[in-house]
Amino acid sequence: MIWFARPVFLPLILLFPLYIFLRKSGTISPFSLPLTLGNWGAPAFGWKPFFLNLASGVCVFLLSVSFFLGVFAAADFSVLEKTEYYSGTSLPVVFILDVSPSMSAPDMNGETRFDAAKNGIASFVRSRPGGSFGLAALASDAAMLVPPTTDTETFLHRLDALRIGELGEGTAIGMGLAVAASHLQGAKNSPSFAVLLTDGENNAGGIHPATAASFFRSSGISLILAGLGRKGYSEISYEDPVSGMQYSGRFYSGFDETSLLDIAAAAGGIYVRAADPDSLASVFSTLDASVPETAVAWSENARRSLSFPCAVLSLCFAAAAWMLRFLLLGGGICL
């Protein structure tokens, strides 16, 4: 939606058709501003009439656009952008994503486990404007990359930048759960939620998954654990984000579902087998049903002024018209 903060200047636009009418009727003579730069007494510059007429027409067009943009700048041309405000944030959700090399296995209908998980997270977050989301990653180590925030753009930017191998080659499930629990304990909005997406069994880190899972039960944090991929051999390929080296080979996925079920049970949470994109979608459907929507409290239009860009463009068009007349028509500005 467009807006003029100083509409009193808009009637100046009528001066343009009025000037054209008076010109055509012969009431006034053409306006000219001589700015010719050349040698005194030098021969006049000549050009074929067709190009003279074309260049003259282009000059008139440029000056006309410059005039209208100048009026828009004076009237403070603005754009009104609708912004939604929320009565409060939703219950916080932290996604814990496995970034170990085995997540590069392309057994999710041709898509890697890692990409399928990232796409699912991104789609869910985009569908929940005003929601509070955090992002943690685990491999040999674990880290909270984005603490729970309502800044969706920051969350999605870090999610998109996340790479396999960023935290090593192991699978420290206990560490990943502990990192998420530490950021969700004592959350302002209770209860809170964590979603762990992994394809492996715990083989790294200094915290046992059962110990970390007990934090969830005692702190009122709901856990949804998704086991990604299938058991068996798979070709994997990924680029180490630290060294830049490319790794590839044949990988055997053991996929210990029993241990993942035990972790979910210790946390008092839910385990979902996600062997394909359809079953992975059910993970986010379960989350969607568990986390209430954030109510929209109100919306308002924020004004973004474009008067300065209009003024700059007006000067640019006027300068372009002068340069064209100087180079092809002997200089000056004429309407």
From TrEMBL:
Q: Which organism is it from?
A: Candidatus Avitreponema avistercoris
- Protein's name according to its UniProt entry: VWA domain-containing protein
Q: Which Pfam families match?
A: VWA_2 (PF13519)
Check the record and name the PANTHER family matching this protein: LEUCINE ZIPPER PROTEIN 4, SPORE GERMINATION PROTEIN
Sequence ranges assigned to domain VWFA in this UniProt record: 92-287
Parts forming coiled coils: none
**Which chain regions cross the lipid bilayer?**
50-75, 306-328
**SMART domains documented for this protein:** VWA (SM00327)
Matching InterPro entries, A to Z?
Answer: UPF0353/GerABKA_families, VWF_A, vWFA_dom_sf
Q: Which SUPFAM superfamilies does the annotation name?
A: vWA-like
Query: What's in the keyword line of the UniProt record?
Result: Cell membrane, Membrane, Transmembrane, Transmembrane helix
Write down the superkingdom of origin.
Bacteria
